Amino acid sequence: MSERIEAGVWVEIHDIVLEAGERAPQVPEDTARIPLEMRVKGFLSEPAELGGEAEIVTAAGRRLRGKLVDVNPAYRHGFGPPIPELSTIGRELRTLLGQREISDD
């Protein structure tokens, strides 16, 4: 038996928006061969089981339905490693602006 998740819990749903044969004709061939999927996070609107159909309310207030795939899903994206050339730019700019204000006086 699957785990029952209570309403109001932060979850993620998954659904197929368009099957492979339903994609727009102008998309590249390799894209057209795969379905268009959605993964959306939101608050569960009513109790549901993990792996079952569920409805969520997103942070923007949209109501969407799909298969409940995760509970309290983590964000797994990042912005990559720091760029050394950019790490000192704020301090350098403040220095330049400070010098300019002094020379304008």
Sheet having the most strands: 4 strands, antiparallel, barrel
Q: Enumerate the strands of the largest sheet in spatial order, edge to edge or round the barrel.
A: 2-3-5-6
Beta-strand percentage?
A: 25-35%
Spans where pLDDT lies below 50 across 5 or more residues: none
Mean pLDDT across residues: 92
**Sequence of secondary-structure elements:** EEHEEEEHH
Observed structural traits:
6 strands, 23% helix, alpha+beta, four-stranded antiparallel beta barrel, 105 residues, 3 helices, two-stranded antiparallel ribbon
Quick overview:
The chain is α+β, with helices and mostly antiparallel strands. It is built from 3 helices and 6 strands.
Task: Describe this structure as you would to a colleague.
By secondary structure, the chain is an alpha+beta fold. Helices cover 23% and strands 34% of the residues. It has three helices and six strands. The chain has helices at 29-32, 84-87, 89-104; strands at residues 4-5, 10-18, 36-44, 48-49, 53-57, 63-71. The chain has a four-stranded antiparallel β-barrel. Strands 1-4 form a two-stranded antiparallel ribbon. A hairpin with a 5-residue loop joins strand 5 (53-57) and strand 6. The chain is elongated, with a radius of gyration of 23 Å.
Layout of strands and helices, then pairs:
Elements: E1 4-5, E2 10-18, H1 29-32, E3 36-44, E4 48-49, E5 53-57, E6 63-71, H2 84-87, H3 89-104
Antiparallel strand pairs: 1-4, 2-3, 2-6, 3-5, 5-6
